[in-house]
Amino acid sequence: MKRLLSLALALLVVFSLCACTSGPAPAPSASTSEDMYMDFLAGNSKVYGDFANVTMYGSGYDGPQPFIDKEDGFDIAQLVNRVVVSADMPGAKSAVTMRYALIDCGSDGEPELALSTSIEDTYGSPFERQAIIKNIDGKLQLCHVTESYYRYYEELFNPGGVIVSGGSSSYLSSVYSKAAIDKDGVYRNIFSETDDYYLGSQFPEFCKIAEVAAQREDELDDNYLLKTVYFFGEDGAPLDPIFSAEPEDDETIKSIFAEAGEKLYTLEEISAVIKEKMDSCGVVDKMEEIVWTDLDPSAIPGVKDIAEYGINPVFVSTTDEFVSAIADDTTIVLAPGEYNVTEWVNANDVREFDYEENTWDAGVFKGGYFDEPEFVINNLSGLTIVSQDKNKPATIVCEPRHSNVIAFRNCNSIILKDIIAGHTQGGSCSGDVIAVIDSYAVDMYNCDLYGCGAYGIYADNASNVVLTDCVIHDCSYGCVEAYDSYLNFYGCVFRDCKEYTMFDIMNTDAYFENCSFKNLQGEMLYMTTSSYVNFKGCTFDANALNGLNWYSGEGRIQLDN
Predict the structure, then answer these.
(1) To 10 degrees, the CA torsion angle through 399, 401, 406, 411?
(2) Which among 168, 412, 432, 441 could bridge 458 via Cys, Cβ 3.0 to 4.6 Å?
(3) Considering only CA atoms, which of 424, 458, 419, 452 is closest in space to residue 438?
(4) Burial of residue 11, with CB atoms counted within 10 A of its CB: 0-12 exposed, 13-18 middle, 19 or more buried
(5) How far is it, in rounded angstroms, from Cα 43 to Cα 295?
């Protein structure tokens, strides 16, 4: 990021001009504005989006969704929840952190509020949104929302309201831009530059450089065929572009532009052009750092539940309430007690899952074999199921021994946390506890999966299934059965299972770290040729370790202990 910032004045490729006239906004006193901001941060008031310059949209699963409701407004909990919901991230979202700062856009002495909400997905990818809020005529208005993630950043750069952004869609394409919120809360685009497009023809001083770069691109940049522009410093040497170009000698570059009769601008000349535009827009580029203050999400009503449980928390205490709450981008918080999904399926007119056509409708279905009903959650994304009290975890059960307790089909970004799950009937069975089929990004934390189940986990065409600090025990066939999948187990305990193969691994990669294996009564492992299993830092009782040491089947085992 620092390199992009240092090159901002050196590479000027696209200038997007803006109209820089607007009437002055009312200027309430600083104390009044600061009081309103603090009241909002405490969860006691709302911010609105009817300010004309708000154009930010979040990426909802049903297409673009307005980031903020223009009529009703959002309180801080709704705003934070919207940030988390609309974050386009590969895994389930977690680890909400917040901070705020008072800034002075346009340096007119009237404060604005910057609120940053950061989250991570379960694979450690960061995502941050910053909302810039201004008191306009006694009403809090959202002026702009920035968005930063692993390939793109847009962030508040200094307390004068300057915003910088950059990123890339590939190693051949990157962009850097600079904008600002002025004293009236209006978004002002200062300049934008890319390294693989023509220069902006809207800026007359530089538009001919685009023509030269296009006509002589083979000579200017033989490696990448980019329309790279060469600006020169005071000593006449070209400033280093983002991507190196051929040829790199000064005289060749100078002669190309000299033949075209085009001037090569110095850094100082470019800086003067940019400053003139910023001045005309009422933007003050303060070279100061923003002073951020951390917020405790648990101290803010509504936000506390989002930070502790997840997006859109819905608190339930009965099986009817539990099933009714199942939806995209929802956290279902289960009160202590037992939730019998078989009773619910039998008592309701539930749609049948079509195994031949692989039903694609979203929602809850009735599946299963041997005329025994199975609880199927299909084609949902962003669903979390968590116990309200991890010291008194909720239990999800099913009755038929030949049905899975829960089958997730065609789902992604699913979390189970602090849950107990199993069958009400013991003995021999063919139903597993949790089945993950044609799904990805399914995470389980501190869950107790018990038999019967035939297996604690069944995975078929399932990628990025991650179990952390879970226990799989007393299953009647084994611990895990997987086909064409990718599984990770961290700190899990596998114990007291019997009587066939404990880990059936077919065309699957499975990684076990700091896991424990004990009292497993059956063949330890079966793998197909294309499978791979890695045990790192794990502990085994004598029987389990003996099963690994004497394994002579197909696939590859790596034992790092």
Answers:
(1) -150
(2) 432
(3) 458
(4) buried
(5) 12
For residue 265, the model assigns a pLDDT of: 64
- Count the neighbouring beta carbons within 10 Å of the beta carbon of residue 343: 17
Give pLDDT, residue 329. Answer: 87
Nearest to 362 by CA among 319, 397, 302, 410: 410
CA distance 132 to 182: 11
* Cis peptide, bond prior to residue 166, ω within 30 of zero: no
The amino acid present at 515, given as its one-letter code, is: C
Determine whether 72 is exposed, middle or buried from the number of CB atoms within 10 Å of its CB (0-12, 13-18, 19+): exposed
Of 38-42, 168-172, 409-413, give the lowest mean pLDDT range: 168-172
Q: Is 80 helix (H, G, I), strand (E, B) or coil?
A: helix
223 burial type by CB count under 10 A (0-12 exposed, 13-18 middle, 19+ buried)? exposed
Strand partners, 330: 383
Four-CA torsion 455, 457, 463, 464, nearest 10 degrees: -150
Determine the 3-state secondary structure of 336 from DSSP.
coil
SS3 267: helix
Q: What is the pLDDT of residues 373-386, one digit of tens each?
A: 889 999 999 899 99
With both helix axes pointing from N to C terminus, report the angle between 250-259 and 207-215 in degrees, rounded to the nearest 10.
Answer: 110
Pick from 46-60, 149-163, 165-179, 329-343 the range whose average pLDDT is largest: 329-343
- Sequence-distant (6+) residues with CB within 8 A of 465 are 436, 439, 440, 442, 443, 457, 459, 485, 486, 487, 488
State residue 15's pLDDT score.
30
Contacts 24+ apart (CB under 8 A), 31-34: 32/135, 33/110, 33/111, 33/112, 33/135, 34/102, 34/111
- Among 447, 489, 452, 436, residue whose Cα is nearest residue 470: 447
- Residue 63: Cβ-neighbour burial (10 angstroms; 0-12, 13-18, 19+): exposed
Q: What CA–CA distance (Å, rounded) separates 175 from 148?
A: 14
Task: Evaluate whether 432 touches 404 at the Cβ level (below 8 Å).
Answer: yes
Structure tokens at 391: 């010291």
Whole-angstrom Cα distance, residue 17 to residue 416? Answer: 50
Q: Using alpha carbons, select from 446, 352, 452, 359 the residue that is nearest to residue 411.
A: 359
User: In this structure, are residues 219 and 252 in contact, taking their beta carbons and an 8 Å threshold?
Assistant: yes
